[in-house]
Specification:
Elements lengths: L1 H21 L8 E2 L3 E2 L7 H10 L3 E8 L2 E8 L8 E9 L3 E9 L15 E7 L4 E4 L1
């Protein structure tokens, strides 16, 4: 009977340990990525159209054009004005480009209008075929 349980336990252990290793990703920074925050008028038209379609919800988009990679991060509809999005970090790992952003609320001294806004940021960097992960 002991041999039977050992026989069953061994494949189960192998499966569990294999699943843990397969899901592991390495987020160790190789280097910081140089980027520019892009004004709306400098965003490629095709990408701007996608942004407009997606801006009401949580948005995480990327777009390659003419040797550059554009990444957009939005936080959906906000009920007042005064919100902005900042880029906290942008770096490369072995497998991906990681971009960290934050949604900032209106400042205490800022005049706030009661109207829906859709805060987002678009950044431009040198093109890479690595996947983008937003934090």
């Amino acid at each position: 009977m002991k041999k039977y349980y050992t026989f069953l336990a061994l494949p189960l252990c192998i499966l569990l340990l294999g699943a843990c290793a397969a899901g592991k990703t390495d987020h160790e920074k190789i280097r910081n990525i140089e980027f520019t925050v892009v004004d709306r008028e400098d965003v490629p038209e095709e990408f701007l159209a996608r942004i407009e379609e997606e801006k009401e919800g949580q948005m995480k988009l990327s777009f390659g054009d003419k040797g550059y990679l554009y990444a957009a991060r939005g936080y959906g509809v906000q009920e007042t004005s005064g919100y902005s999005v900042t880029v906290d970090q942008c770096f490369e790992t072995e497998q991906e480009i990681r971009i960290g952003t934050s949604l900032l609320g209106p400042g205490k001294e800022e005049k706030i209008l009661k109207k829906k806004t859709y805060p987002y940021v678009v950044i431009k960097m040198e093109y890479t075929d690595k996947q983008i992960e937003f934090e």
